[in-house]
Design goal:
Blueprint: E1 5-7, H1 11-17, E2 21-22, E3 30-33, E4 38-45, E5 50-58, E6 76-78, H2 89-94, E7 96-101, E8 103-110, E9 113-121, E10 127-136, E11 140-149, E12 160-162, H3 170-175, H4 180-183, H5 189-193, E13 195-200
Parallel strand pairs: 2-5, 5-11, 6-11
Antiparallel strand pairs: 1-3, 1-8, 4-5, 7-10, 8-9, 9-13, 10-11, 11-12
Keywords: Covalent protein-DNA linkage, DNA damage, DNA-binding, Hydrolase, Lyase, Protease
Protein name: Abasic site processing protein
Enzyme class: hydrolase
Length: 229
Amino acid sequence: MCGRYATTRSEADLSLLFDATSVTEALGPSWNVAPTDPVPLVRMSQRHGGRVVDAARWGLLPPWADDPRAGARMINARAETVATSRAFAPSFERRRCLVPADGWFEWVRDGRLKQAFYMTPRDASVLAFAGIWTMWREQTLTCSVLTTAALGGLAEVHDRMPLILPRERWPEWLAGGGDPGALLQPLTPAELEAIEVRPVRPDVGNVRNNGPHLLTAAEPVAPAEVTLF
């Protein structure tokens, strides 16, 4: 799963990168986004006639959810079942979005030790996670990030990864409808090679920690046991 990530670009920068209009107040950068945090997303808006940068609570809340705390369990939607899931299918069909990110975190356990890794583009370009959104009780915008089976070297860190969409796939994803098989294609081997897997300090494991130091490369806690890339 993807349970922590970094998103540090301003709404103005995201507007330029995604050719969108910002319709939200500035959230500020976060190097340690956690479930239920407010996060930026890019979605289509009929009112504004195109793409908008908006803010949503991370953890999708279906209209029938009674308790907002349920969103903490719905931060991710599996690509394999998103088109048929009662909770996610309506949003997958009609309310898809892009979730901008700098990179994401996963952990490898070695006995009692856990090594944190940060996955990020080698060229520091923006990532666009495939996302879905919905409005809960007509007042709270919420979202989930789609995940897929990890491939290549990324699978040695975790068996799941965010579904990442290259720029040329953004229009089709945001349009709604379409063939699920084509929409949910994973990255190509060449695109996967462009992602660095970086060992980082364990500080990111505490949601109270935030700041660019969390992304700094660090010696792994168990170098004899943890695979580096």
